Amino acid sequence: MTADADPSAIRSIAVSRDDVVDAFVYGRENPGAAVLRVTPPFHGRMRARIHVYRADDARVTGAVHVRPETLLEDDAVASYPALEDEREDASSDETERVRKRHAEAVDAWRERAREAIAETVALETPDGSTTVSVKPLE
After folding, report:
1. Do 109 and 73 meet the contact criterion of CB atoms below 8 Å apart?
2. For 18-63, what is each residue's pLDDT tens digit?
3. Coil/strand/helix, residue 119
4. Which residues does 97 contact at the CB level (< 8 Å), separation at least 6?
5. Which stretches make up the DUF8009 domain (predicted)?
6. What CA–CA distance (Å, rounded) separates 76 from 57?
7. Which residues contact 129 (CB under 8 A, 6 or more apart)?
């Protein structure tokens, strides 16, 4: 592996607060997966960007995928609002109210979660796990 393809060179990753929150919500509300992705060539300071996929291509591209829940503080992950079960006999108005309440709860959660970015994260590399600093962008 060439030096610029070795993710163990990474000391810190910069992330958009919105990308972290959006990736987390996407994974809870949609099929497929969303991660924060770091692509080679690797160096000390890297930018991680949101990446949505159905088939993981990290082995082919050499990218490092960081799960959004690892970039959020545990309390933020645990407080994500669950969607209420919809009753089969519910009216369309009642169903719409449930969905609206959930959307409002998710919006409120997003605001709190933007301020709950972890200070460090473990990245998986061919040589094992390495912990790097997380630098939130405004």
Report:
1. no
2. 999 999 999 999 888 999 999 999 999 999 999 999 888 888 889 9
3. coil
4. none
5. 3-137
6. 28
7. 122, 123
